[in-house]
Input
Amino acid sequence: MAGAATPPLLRIGVLALLVLQNTSLRLVMKHARTVSPNFSATAAVFACEILKFTTAIAVLARVRRSLITALVEVLNYRELLPMLVPAALYLLADRLHHVSTRRLDVAAFQVLSQSKVLTAALFGKVFRGRDYSGRQWFCLCAIACGIAICQLADIGVDTLEPPDLLGVATVMTTSLLGAAAGTYIEATLQRGSGDGVLWKRAAQMAANGCLIAAGPASRSNLDGFVFSAWLVVALNAAGGLLVAAAMRYADNVLKTLAASLSIVVSTIAATIFLSAPAPSSRFMIGGLVVVGAIYVYGTAPKVVVETRAEAEKA
Output
């Protein structure tokens, strides 16, 4: 089911839930790291993948009315192995993420990492045949700038030092790898129709995630896993399933915009619920830019691309 054929209310509902999940995760993560700063991130990732796999298999088994049928369908190696491609891309992007955070200061990293908004759109245009109007490209640039302003205001930085070139290269490569993985997953999730396709793909991605996360997790333990840490695991698992739904019923760009909006929403929510310092005027300006640009992007007229056959008929 392509994103274009999806009922608008379903698409909006999935993206709204994704914003809510991202916002909740940021708040709970802050609380968990305050209460138990040393709980293992690698163990949390492995637990998250197991929970995603279990949930997706349970729903698929209900759809297929057989757990065995669901497992056989998910563990089909001809379909499972191709899903290693985005998993490997995300793994490489994660390694480069660590390199870039070492080579760049926080401010430069926060600004440059917003290139992911534009790379997601670029890959959508090149590999998925989407066309964006000039107004939409302007909105995407405005969203990236708005988030950068918010994050600079959040860490209290007024000026940027000239960044390390290797650090810049690794951030840009990370954005490209993330966009490539997202586009690949989007194409995979939107291929096929019928009940259970979403849950089958989600289970296959989680199965690969379990394989990749098992190694690092074997060297960690569950010390420090308080209730809020387990809540982080649950929210991360819900986020993974919502991302799969967003990829199937919307697209990679809208998923990225939902994540961007959640940065603004979570900061305001932290002020209300966690007694965090009130956002600065610069943050509010950046937030207004993001919200306004997302609204204009969503209401911009769709670009209609005339196919060669239609042109010959005319």
Q: What stands out?
A: The two ends are 29 Å apart (CA to CA). The CA atoms of residues 125 and 131 lie 6 Å apart.
